Amino acid sequence: MKQTEFLNVVMPFKDKLYRLAKRLLVSSEEAEDATQEILLKLWSKKKAMGNYTNVEAFAMTMTKNFCLDRLKSKQAGNLKLVHSNYSDENSSLQKQVEARDSVNWIERIMEELPEQQKMVLQLRDVEQYNYDEIEALLDMKPTAIRVALSRARKTVREKLMQKHSYGIG
Questions:
Q1: Are the C-beta atoms of 55 and 9 separated by less than 8 Å?
Q2: Distance, CA of 137 to CA of 131 (rounded, Å)
Q3: Cα–Cα distance between 169 and 166 in angstroms, integer?
Q4: Which ranges of the chain does DSSP label H, i.e. alpha helix?
Q5: Nearest alpha carbon to residue 133 among 122, 143, 124
Q6: pLDDT at 75
Q7: Which of 20, 51, 42 is nearest to 137 (CA)?
Q8: Which phi and psi angles does 85 have, rounded to 5°?
Q9: N or C of the chain: less Cβ packing under 10 Å?
Q10: What is the pTM of this model?
């Protein structure tokens, strides 16, 4: 596989790899490093890439495993908590602040979820993967995926409602 073919295959899902890495590692810098590592690993496996039925699923699985390994390693103690700030130029300043606050709260709540729920929520609601793809990526049964997703959404919803209704009542 030549470089142009490799880029045509890998580039469409490079951002998904980054977002998954960021969800797991939190730090933008760590997520960028992880994405680069996965791209290098994919490049080293370019000859065998034609044998994979779904290169994107393979890359997402590699990313998940790499990030989980990083979190378990000694270096995990050195990870920085850095959150992205999302902005919309057309919103009023107040709406921007509220939206940023909600996104930050959702990110914090997601970080507290059990690993499996965090992964399922990220893949389904953020990355828009279908249940079959999640089943293949995480090696879970469909009912387990639905249960984990339901519990994750419920936890996020309840904690967000607590946050927004705090002091009211």
A1: yes
A2: 10
A3: 8
A4: 3-10, 14-25, 28-44, 55-72, 93-112, 115-121, 131-138, 142-164
A5: 124
A6: 53
A7: 20
A8: -105, 125
A9: C
A10: 0.55
| CA distance linking residue 82 with residue 116, whole number of Å | 22
Residue position matching structure tokens 């590692």: 25
Question: Of 63, 47, 53, nearest to 5 (Cα)?
Answer: 47
DSSP 166: T
d(CA 153, CA 150) in angstroms, rounded, equals: 5
52 three-class SS: coil
Answer yes or no: are the C-beta atoms of 146 and 131 closer than 8 Å: yes
| Count of alpha carbons within 13 angstroms of residue 110, beta-carbon side | 23
Q: Which residues of the chain have pLDDT under 70?
A: 1, 74-96, 99, 166-169
- Sequence-ordered list of residues with C-beta below 8 angstroms from that of 139, at least 6 positions apart, any chain: none
* Token pair 């996104």: residue: 103
Alpha-carbon gap, residue 52 to 169, rounded angstroms: 56
Confidence at residue 47, expressed as pLDDT on a 0 to 100 scale: 85
Confidence (pLDDT) at 82? 44
- As a whole number of angstroms, the longest Cα–Cα distance in the chain is 64
Structure tokens at 48: 């065998």
